[in-house]
Write a structure and sequence with these properties.
Helix 1 crosses helix 6 and helix 2 runs antiparallel to helix 3. The two termini are 26 Å apart. By secondary structure, this protein is mostly helical. The chain folds into two domains: 104 residues, no CATH class; 126 residues, Orthogonal Bundle (Helix Hairpins). The radius of gyration is 39 Å and the shape is rod-shaped. It contains six helices and four strands. The longest helix has 82 residues.
């Protein structure tokens, strides 16, 4: 009858074998999920920019209308002051009226200049809108292609991944919380996600450091949980690893 430590080692390596399979599925997808997300964000940003530029054009058109109205107001005042020039009684009144007329003409010139500037700014913003829309259309095509690629890969592996996740959850239910936490801590410490590794060619399957013969015997006896002295990964013998891998393959493909 299997001892409790052997059962724990099998359960831990089973979770590792399952996680390694899930990692391979994610590796096949590569950077596609992130690329899709980045393209979606870029398109959203470009659309937001178009809305912002459109609002700015509306504001500039409102400014142009205000300047046109200011010119009309100045024309009315000039007309009024011109009429009053015929009724002036002294030089002081004449100078005051001509000064007002001069100021209103300057105001009209300033308004005309501003209108030219606003219209130029509108043209620039229209060009920016067109370039943003064109770029958004290009990115939409890229996004569609990336989504198709991702959906194709996901479609091929989705059922397998779902089976693996369900199997992983069922195995974890039988692993004590302390060991599960230790496993996760070791796994997240390494980019390859290996926390439980078999002995390969008398070495640790994680860091490839040589393992002394007596320690190999202890690992093979499966009477205690042994970790690599160099990398801290949990070690199992090659036979246990092979048997568990075959078991996982059978369960996933069942």
């Amino acid at each position: 009858m299997e001892n409790s430590v052997e059962v724990k080692l099998k359960q831990l390596y089973k979770v590792q074998a399952i996680d390694s399979k899930i990692d391979k599925i994610h590796a096949v997808r590569g950077e596609l999920p992130m690329e899709v997300s980045d393209l979606e964000d870029e398109i959203e940003g470009l659309n937001t920019r178009v809305v912002k530029l459109t609002d700015e054009i509306s504001a500039l058109n409102a400014d142009i209308d205000a300047k046109k109205q200011a010119i009309k107001d100045s024309d009315s005042l000039i007309k009024k002051y011109d009429a009053q020039l015929g009724d002036v009684k002294n030089n002081r009144e004449y100078l005051a009226l001509t000064k007002e007329i001069e100021l209103q003409n300057l105001e009209k010139m300033a308004c005309d200049k501003k209108i030219v500037e606003f219209r130029a700014a509108i043209e620039v913003k229209k060009e920016q809108i067109e370039s943003s829309k064109a770029l958004a259309e290009e990115r939409k095509k890229d996004l569609e292609a990336k989504r198709k690629e991702l959906n194709s890969i996901t479609g091929e592996t989705q059922k397998e991944e779902q089976n693996l996740v369900e199997l992983r959850n069922s195995v974890l239910e039988h692993i004590e919380n302390r060991l599960a936490k230790a496993y996760e801590k070791i796994r997240t410490s390494y980019k390859n996600g290996l926390a439980v590794v078999p002995i390969e060619r008398e070495s640790c399957g994680g860091c490839y450091s040589l393992i002394p013969p007596q320690r190999q015997l202890d690992i093979g006896n499966r009477k205690k949980i042994i970790v690599c002295e160099h990398c801290g990964r949990i070690l199992v013998d090659a036979d246990l690893a092979e048997n568990v891998k075959n078991e996982v393959n059978q369960e996933v493909n069942a």
